[in-house]
Amino acid sequence: MEMENRFVYLDEDYDRVPDVPLDQLGQSEIDQSENSNSLHETLIPTDDSKPLAGESAQGEFLQPTETSQSMANRLLGLGSENYQAGRYEAALDLFKQAYSLYQATQDDLGQGRSLSSIGLTFYSLKHYSKAIEYSQSALVYAQQTCDRPSAVISLSTLGNAYRHFKEPDKAIEYQLQSLSLAKEVGDRPGEMAALNNLGLAYKAVSQYEQAISYEKQSLVVARELGSQQVEEQILKNLGNACYALGDYVNAIDYYQQRLALARLLQDSRMEAQILRNLGNAYYAVEDYTRSIECGEQRLVATRTLDDLRGEEQALGSIGVAYDALGDYANAIRCYEQRLEIARSMNDSRVEEQVLGNLKVACFAIGDYIKAADCAAQRQNLSRK
């Protein structure tokens, strides 16, 4: 039986590196341009030109002369295409249809592969309990049919789901099984994913050196496979792990490499996200001039994207770096622009924060009248 559901899953580190201190109260910016509540996977390949599920299912897909077996195979393939394009709900529906047809024809191999795909899709939809349920069922079929490639995916999905359930021992155990099996069958993309996911599992329990070791191995494989998008994600994971370890020099190196890839891919949104992390890393090593340079570049990118929230945050980071340099005039300039944006968005939290920054900067240059005015405005906001 010929069927292809060989998509490669690589999980991404959505932890945010700590922000520069935007005010004396320790409040930090909320970066909505890299929202940890949204889960985006890297898949090989990603093709946004693929047809929508409904279009193919009603036209090319459901042909009168087609057998249940071939229809199931095609549903599985189309489900994979939709998954790779990020259309998870459509993919889930197609995988379930495929499973029903495989079940009707008593095709154990097909049932196992469709269950594995359903489990992975539930994971991408953040339904972790269902991801575990379907992936466990898929493993049973994989063992019965000796379908080791599908087992690699199911084991990886289980490991990632248990990581989100904060069960690190199970997460690591399943990822190690996925890695061992991927090596056994010569599945290099699966090996790359397992190594990366092991890195995230160890980072989740603050074993950063072990995490970095696995991520580095994953990066080697990604570069061998020539996937720049996968490489970009692993560089992000490595940068974040190094930052968490306090190894800012290597974090900066990985962020710089990731920035070069983002520019090669002409992804302005990704570029803005990287510049944020890079600017924070430079701030951490007290290289405030370079932190400002990153902030200015990020500001350009956010304005290109019409991202007001990103623009407001970039101005805050630049202002704080100028503050650290003792360049209060430029700090005030940035804070005033940020204040204007905060008010345009009716964001009283940010407005209050910026007024605090302005008060301190104005006091530093001896403008006590303006400092007092900022303090009064901030007090009024607090009362509201």
Describe this protein's structure.
The chain has helices at residues 53-61, 68-84, 88-104, 108-124, 128-145, 148-164, 168-185, 188-204, 208-225, 228-245, 248-264, 268-284, 288-304, 308-325, 328-344, 348-364, 368-383. With 384 residues, it is mainly α. The chain is elongated and about 80 Å long. The chain starts with 52 loop residues before the first helix and ends with a helix.
Q: What's the main sheet like?
A: none
Backbone structural class: mainly alpha
Shape type: elongated
Q: Give the SSE string.
A: HHHHHHHHHHHHHHHHH
Number of helices: 17
The percent range for strand residues is under 5%
Which bin fits the share of residues in helices?
over 70%
The overall strand count is 0
Question: What order do the helices and strands come in, and which of them pair?
Answer:
Elements (H helix, E strand, L loop, with lengths): L52 H9 L6 H17 L3 H17 L3 H17 L3 H18 L2 H17 L3 H18 L2 H17 L3 H18 L2 H18 L2 H17 L3 H17 L3 H17 L3 H18 L2 H17 L3 H17 L3 H16 L1
Task: Offer a few descriptive terms.
384 residues, mainly alpha, 17 helices, 0% strand, elongated, disordered N terminus
Brief description of this entry?
This protein has 17 helices and no strands. It has helices at residues 53-61, 68-84, 88-104, 108-124, 128-145, 148-164, 168-185, 188-204, 208-225, 228-245, 248-264, 268-284, 288-304, 308-325, 328-344, 348-364, 368-383.
